Amino acid sequence: MIVDLNYLVFLFSFVIRTNSLNILILFPTAANSHFLVFEPMFQELAKRGHNLTILTSRHRLYTHENKTLLYSIKDEKTYMVKPILPMDFFKGRRTEMYKEQFLLASITESTCERFLSSEYVKNFLKESNSYDVVIAEVFGSHCYFGLAKRYNAPVIGLSSTDLLPWMYQWYGSPENPSYIPVLFMDYSDKMNFFQRVENTLMLIFSKLVHLYYIAPTGNEYSKKYLGVDLFEGGDILYNMSLLLTNRHYTYQTPKPLSPNIIEVGGIHLGKPKKLPESLDKLVSGAPSGVILISMGSTLKGSTFPEEQRKMFLKVFSQLKYTVIWKWENDTMEGLPSNVKTHKWLPQFDLLCHPNLKLFITHGGLLGGQEAVYCGVPMLILPQFADQHLNAAALEKTGASLHIKLRTATEKSLTEAINKVLTPQFAQNAKLLSERFKDRPMSPMDTAIYWIEYVAKYKGAPFMRTAVTDMPFYQYLLLDVIGFLILLAAIFIYVFYFCIKRIIRLVIKTSPQSKIKKH
User: Fold this and answer.
1) What angle, 0 to 180 degrees and rounded to 10, lies between the N-to-C axes of helices 306-317 and 410-420?
2) Could you tell me which of 10, 216, 237, 244 has the fewest CB atoms within 10 Å of its CB?
3) Where are the transmembrane segments (predicted)?
4) What pLDDT score was predicted for residue 295?
5) Contact 507/515 with Cβ under 8 angstroms?
6) 8 A C-beta contact, residue 58 and residue 75
7) What is the distance between the terminal CA atoms of the chain, rounded to a whole angstrom?
């Protein structure tokens, strides 16, 4: 797949106030949903008086009273990631879960080339700057981590998804495949024998792809454009101070995390707003309620496979509910009277409307979090990446079901919709929402606290577990296991030798042996 991206870098800062931090934020990934997760956090850091310098491919700048624009790019042509993947790009084959990692690597490789070769980055590097903290997205390639190493500042990683398979070892967290499903898999934490076998193989495969392809490629770009070897003097990836991850154990599989991994799932969620008048009239006026169907911002919903689209419309036409379908094209053929299409929707506000009964989605993490927050049951049609994992985890909560789009029939789709619309699913969704919101601090306050904590304690190295400095044979206790096996072998040999000698001695001293001698 070829993604045409012209990366632009925007650098802007906010006036420093007393005790404010100088923070460099690296966010080159052009995927809209990734930036949207942490955009509110950047705004909140600025409101609290911190000085932000943000390198990103985003074209939208913040409106803040203390903002000083350093570089103007208003005359440049901008290419941002829109819905670029057609629905038929993924065929639903099992092997795609393995191929997706190379797709991820190719996209991030393109990101490195276009981002680091940008004139804005080159100009930025000419300046003499110092930073208290570097905050960087951890996704795919790590070429831009050379900037963090260049400024010798504590590094805080941001993950808009759950942890990628190779990230656990950076922070010293357990990665046991017997109950921790790999992000690319479609399993929950309850796996049978063969699922555990495949999950283990996927973990090994993912680590090898990262070790021999993703990491070396990122390092080459770092050396080429930044003159920084990521692995020289200690791998920077194993020396990051903190990770803020957009996950939460209430709706994803719970797992042990080291102290330097902080869950801030739902950090992008604010308070729902009132719907636009025309949309509010449609939703409020639906006598039986509303079903929303949306395939997110990366998948292009209007490329829904034709056969499946007709099947969905036929099923929708038999429902008593009003269906609102996010559809990027102007028209959709064969629309039943109860189905309405919209190119764009205020999804979060719509999901929190009391007359919204069901959300049909691809299983993207942001949309799933919005539905969880609003207490809306889901029917999930996972397509790629972490969507399969999200679907399996959410189904375990009893607030959603998931089906395969490619194999769904009119009967199975109707049964799934009717099942999720039962009171039990609605009750489970409300309970899940309550658990999700019940925290000692909001995700935003949690994130800001830990960023300031890391800066205050100069990277807080005491939060890192010893495993990050261990060779793999020590971490897996291979040396201990080998030593114990050797001891057991020696004990067995000595025991065998002693028994053999005793038997010989007994035979030699027995009366029968003496008689034979005479």
Assistant:
1) 50
2) 216
3) 7-27, 472-499
4) 87
5) no
6) no
7) 93
The dihedrals phi and psi of 26, each to the nearest 5 degrees, come to: -110, 115
State the pLDDT confidence band at 329, using cuts at 50, 70 and 90: confident
Left if phi > 0, otherwise alpha if psi is -120 to 50, otherwise beta: which for 76? beta
Instruction: Give the C-alpha separation, 196 to 188, whole Å.
Output: 11
Sign of the CA dihedral with 29 first, then 31, 34, and 39 last:
positive
Quick: pLDDT tens for 38-52: 989 998 998 888 988
* C-alpha to C-alpha distance for 94 and 470, rounded to whole angstroms: 34
Q: What integer pLDDT is reported at residue 513 of this predicted model?
A: 57
Specify the residue for token string 């102290």. Answer: 259
Q: Measure Cα distances from 60 to 35, 106, 439, 479, 517 in Å.
A: 11, 26, 32, 53, 104
Token pair, residue 209, equals: 């792809």
DSSP string, 266-317: TTT-----PPPHHHHHHHHT-SS-EEEEE-TTTEEGGG--HHHHHHHHHHHH
Backbone angles phi, psi at 516, to 5 degrees: -60, -35
Strands (E), 162-278: 242-245, 261-263
Q: How far apart are CA 353 and CA 347, in angstroms?
A: 10
Query: Hey, what are 479's tokens?
Result: 């040396």
The reported pTM is 0.87
Handedness of CA 105, 106, 110, 111 (dihedral sign): negative
Which residue do the tokens 């930036």 mark?
35
Scanning 50-173, the segments in alpha helix (DSSP H) are: 96-116, 119-126, 145-151, 168-171
DSSP 62: P
Q: In terms of DSSP bridges, do strands 67-69 and 12-14 run parallel, antiparallel, or are they unpaired?
A: antiparallel
CB atoms under 10 Å from CB of 413, counted, come to 21
Q: Coil, helix or strand for 7?
A: coil
Please answer whether residues 105 and 189 qualify as being in contact, where contact means their C-beta atoms are separated by less than 8 angstroms. Answer: no
pLDDT of residue 93: 65
Distance CA(404)–CA(413), nearest Å, equals 10
State the Cα–Cα distance between residues 184 and 198, nearest whole angstrom. 11
Average confidence (pLDDT) over 349-358: 98
Residue 301 contacts residue 327 (beta carbons within 8 Å): yes
Mean pLDDT of the chain: 85
